[in-house]
Amino acid sequence: MYGMVNQAIEQMVLRAHGPDVWRDIQRRAGLTVEGFISNEAYPDEVTYQLVGAASECLGQPAERILHAFGEHWVLHTAREHYGPMLAATGSTLPEFLEHLPRLHDRVVLIYPKLMPPRIEVTDRAERSLRLHYTSTRPGLAPFMGGLLSGLGQLFGTPTKVTLERPRGAAGGTDIFRVEW
Ligand code: HEM
After folding, report:
1. Residues near ligand 1 (Cβ within 6 A)
2. Among candidates 147, 174, 160, 140, which has minimal Cα distance to 68?
3. pLDDT single digits (tens) 48-99
4. Domain segments of the chain: what residues?
5. pLDDT confidence of 32, banded at 50, 70, 90?
6. What pLDDT does 168 receive?
7. For residue 117, how far is its CA from the centre of ligand 1 (angstroms)?
């Protein structure tokens, strides 16, 4: 994944736990190089190793780290670095979710090696919808859960996110129900 993802993990850890914990996580993840370049594509293993090392150092399950990272991504990374892109996607939670399936189409224009997830929205109702999240990468449903929860906070809209149908061993789609 692009270095900006690993950089955002670093920012989240520094913000919540400080530089000593971050150094510890880097060491455990086996990273020898200091700092990530935001627009360089890194092997996915780097990101998974960082999450695994954070899980060990902080004594928290990886799912919890990924959920917190999803919230951090929306509330800090995207808000601070991609404000116009967020604003163009929607000004309310339902409007944003409606346009979410096309959001990474804009990102790919800046980051051509992007391998974004596929997102589809179905069963739209006044206060709920279903979000189908398909990825070639395993284990990131808690990240998506955190992103959705972060969006609820971003728009000041209390939101309930339920992983209604986790992807099976064969299929790559998790189905979330989002209610507000
Ligand atoms: C302007 C804001 C955003 C930017 C710039 C952005 C950019 C990125 C980047 C660079 C990656 C790594 C993929 C790669 O390098 O191949 C990524 C992955 C991902 N993004 Fe976004 N993103 C944004 C907003 C969102 C939002 C709002 C959601 C969902 C609510 C989302 C869902 C995901 C997920 C789930 C992944 C993990 C990759 C996977 O599932 O395979 N992103 N995004």
Report:
1. 1-2, 4-5, 74, 78, 82, 85-86, 100, 103-104, 107, 111, 114-117, 135, 137, 140, 143-144, 147-148, 151
2. 147
3. 999 999 999 999 999 999 999 999 999 999 999 999 999 999 999 999 999 9
4. 3-60, 91-179
5. confident
6. 84
7. 7
In this predicted structure, what is the pLDDT of residue 81?
A: 96
In the CATH scheme, what is the code of domain 91-179? 3.90.1520.10
Helix or strand or coil: residue 91?
coil
CA of 57 to the centre of ligand 1 (A): 25
Q: What whole-number distance in Å separates Cα of residue 133 and Cα of residue 20?
A: 35
Measured distance CA(125)–CA(23) in Å, rounded: 46
d(CA 140, CA 137): 7
Nearest ligand 1 atom to alpha carbon 136: 41
Task: Return the amino acid letter for 53.
Answer: A
Distance 10 CA to ligand 1 centre (A): 16
CB 141, CB 75: distance < 8 Å: no
